[in-house]
Fold:
Amino acid sequence: MAAMQERMRMAKRMGRIKHKLVVMSGKGGVGKSSVAANLAVALGADSKVGLLDADVTGPDIPKIMGVEDAHIISGDQGIEPAVGPNRVKVISMAQLLVGRDTPVIWRGPLKIKAIKQMMIDVNWGDLDFMVIDLPPGTSDEPLSIAQEIPDADGAIIVTTPQEVSLLDVRKSIAFAQAVRLPIVGVIENMSGLVCPHCGKTIDVFKRGGGEAAAKELGLRFLGRIPLDPDIVVGGDAGKPFVVEHPNSPAAKAFYGIVNEIRANLKPVPPRPEGPLAR
Structure:
């Protein structure tokens, strides 16, 4: 009975969200959380967006979104998420801990329970998009998300251009295919550095590897994001890059990727009548 009630509550919450996008990578250090945060903010320019930080043991999203000190309260409709730039609703394990330096030393089942609670117990309301930032790898959390949100639009795979990252990207893609999670496309992050003096592009980590992998595997290449020191500065200051530097090459790349994502989303079916629609 309890399991059935949980499924009904999940369906009710998630049924009010038109599109669910899962941002994942095969390894850490590729800038996945920065990409997830800036995509959410870019989508939020003209849509209602929620950003769920599903990296329970390494939650960085509140810092990047500038809501690290936001007070999370519980209301009649559930836990009220923090609100970041472009009115993006944000929830993360980091906001529910006693202190910033408190570690989460949990096994898989507890982490999965926490993720479910962030989906079920948070008052997300009606959203056009939910962006879910997964931890790196293909373990418990990605599997749980794939199982709990069977109608997700799919996974956005983030990689850097060099070969060592692309090896892990292929594992992420194989994982998504194994659990029948559609793949929206591949983003190549840290793809060249635009010189602030001469404007030329320096290929620090090579260039084009993500695009080549996407083509090889028959996936859509969503775009490449160049390195920019201001992305790091903005993340540390809690000011997402696309808001602070909207005319930069990297910000324009983010908005181009958002357009690619929007252009290939599946149609949203009408909401069902009855109890779950209310």
The longest strand covers residues 183-194. Residues 79 and 99 are 19 Å apart (CA to CA). Residues 274-278 have pLDDT under 50 and may be disordered. The longest helix spans residues 163-178.
